[in-house]
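step: validate -> pass
step: tokenize input -> pass
step: predict -> running
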Amino acid sequence: MKNDSKNPAEYIRAAINFRADVFDAIAERNPGTIGAMSTLGNVKKVLIINASSRSGSSLLFELLKKNPEIYSLSGEGVPFLKLNGFTGDSFPSDEIAGEMTGDMVRVLNLSRDFLSDCSIKTDPNDVIKDPALRDQYIDDLALRFPLQWPGFSFSYERFKNLALAAFNNYRRNRFVFRAEEFYLELVAVLRNEDPSINPYYYDIPAGMVKEKFPGLEVPVGPPNPVLTIEEPPFIVLKPMRKINEQHLFEKTLLLKSSADCYRMGFIETLFPCADIRVVCLTRNPAASINGLYDGWLSSRGFFSRNLRSLSGGRTASEGNILSIQGYSERYEWGGSWWKYELPLGWEKYSRSRLEEVCAFQWCSANTAVQEYKHTSGKQNCQVRYENIIANADSRKHEIEKIIDIAGIPQISIHQMSLNMLPVMQATYPPFPFRWKKKEDMLKPLLESPSVNLVCAQLGYDRARMEEWL
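step: predict -> pass
step: emit ->
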């Protein structure tokens, strides 16, 4: 997988072909799967979390997925958009024009990818005793695998056999299924044939990885030198029940992707028959910019775009695309790899200090979220990440606002287990006021007119900055 002789299109094509083999095998066993029988045009209700990166959207997504009236993708939809040519490293920004949905073949393929990935709340322990759920889980793992490791060297049949062996190994003498533990078993089996598959790229605590692989070196740089289809840290799939056609009419599809703030018009065109409602999630600039900054400096996470594709494959020796101070000079990949969303106008910041890039990303995304909120005419509510993490009562109040705007019965909240908060894609273990460690760097950023304006729009009072979680 460290072989960079392929170009991006070849990696994408290989992933599509591998997934086609999986879809063919699924269709042979069960011709009536949702991905084969329906399209996104059949979806009737959609709830979108619209937020900037490092605003807590992954955590809110995991909380809302617990609601029995909601079905969702496993993670973000970006990998499926890349597979079908709606976005990618050769695009000048993360904006997507609505008219791109005019290519019906690509839309149908995207429908299959989206709907085949959708699932509803499930007890993951069911996979221990349900062979049908186990087989479906193996296929889900196979469909996800080339998105995470586009330089793979397996056939579908070989991957399936290895994954089944890992599952049987794991389930021995177990009555409880823990996805992170199983993934470590799966990677151990896969690494016997391809050692470049590295568990440190998954959203698994590093301590767990080190315990399972004590001699394994922690990697640096992107997991593939040419492109990422799914941005690391890679999601850890849990066993989930697939949706059926009735769910498309009765339940609500939940979507979350930070880049969607730049493509909401495009998202609307994907769901022409749906009632779309929006959760505008905010987080204060000090915490968000701090999170972005830490992510940019992560040695193995959040690689979203290799900008060489925008420059005709320019190599480092021919000149860097990026000279971001505090980033590009620190890492060998820092001259071409962008992290998180790519807003229009990013070129103006390609020679700026890293903290200025992060402030630009926060301002751009939140400006787009607010513009859509005020101009789209869609029903929406605005919630604060700080209120979600403050305490259980505050969290319940924010979730009630979301459930209300989504038109979901409030009684469903009782089945959501809101007392415990999952830890999702954290650059460091979360704790309140973490941004204060970089207060001297962050405060000057908050004095800029652009950050000040967005702060005012979101209702964050700089005079009360010391209270920002």
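step: describe -> Residues 8-29 form the longest helix (22 residues).
step: cleanup -> pass
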